[in-house]
Amino acid sequence: MTPSTADHAPQAQMSVEEFEQLARTSPETVTLELINGKLEVKPVPDGDHDEIIMWVAMQCMQQQPELRLYRERGLRIGGYRSGRARPDGTLARAGRFAGDGEWSSPDHILMTVAVTSHDHDTDTRDRTEKRDGYAAASIPVYLLIDRDHDSLVVYSEPEKGRYRHRTTYGYGDTVPLPGPVDITLESEELKNYSG
C-alpha cells in the first residue's frame, strides 16, 4: 500500500473562498493551487513538459476518440478539507466540463496526469499531496510522469483516500492504464524529453 499524508492534514492557511479570490487575481505567470489546506505555486511549464502532455493527449484521443485530456482544468479535490488543484491533464469524456465554472467537481473524471517540474516542491506536490488529494476525490487513475526518474507511475483503485495499486514503468515501456481509462501508452517518445 502506498503511504499517504491524508491522516496528517496541516492547519489550513486560508479558506477556500479566500483562495479562490487570490487565484482569480493572480498573474498569468503563476498557477495557484490549494492542496491539503496549503497554498501551492506551480511554475510555468517548460517546452518538454508541454510536449509530454501533448504526447499523452494524442495517445488518448487516438485510442479513445470520445475522450479529451483537458489542460490545467480547475478541480475541487481533497477529503474532509476542501482543496483546489489544476492537474497538468484531466481525462474525461468530451463535453464533461460544459457549463462548469472555474472549479469542477471530480465526478466522471477518469484520470489526472502530472508531469514533474524541475523545482524544489515537485516531490511533495506531485508525488504526495496531489496523489492523496486525487485518491480522496475517488479519481480512478493518477498518472505521474516523473522526469527526475525517467518513469511513469500509475496509481489506481482509490479507497479510503489512498490508491491501493502503484505500478512504475521506465521510459520506453508499454504502459497499460487500467479501467476505466483502458488505454495503452507506448512511451518510447518520452526518451526525447529526458534529461
TrEMBL record:
<dbReference type="GO" id="GO:0004519">
    <property type="term" value="F:endonuclease activity"/>
</dbReference>
<dbReference type="InterPro" id="IPR011335">
    <property type="entry name" value="Restrct_endonuc-II-like"/>
</dbReference>
<feature type="domain" description="Putative restriction endonuclease">
    <location>
        <begin position="16"/>
        <end position="178"/>
    </location>
</feature>
<dbReference type="InterPro" id="IPR012296">
    <property type="entry name" value="Nuclease_put_TT1808"/>
</dbReference>
<keyword id="KW-0540">Nuclease</keyword>
<dbReference type="InterPro" id="IPR008538">
    <property type="entry name" value="Uma2"/>
</dbReference>
<protein>
    <submittedName>
        <fullName>Uma2 family endonuclease</fullName>
    </submittedName>
</protein>
<dbReference type="Pfam" id="PF05685">
    <property type="entry name" value="Uma2"/>
</dbReference>
<keyword id="KW-0378">Hydrolase</keyword>
<keyword id="KW-0255">Endonuclease</keyword>
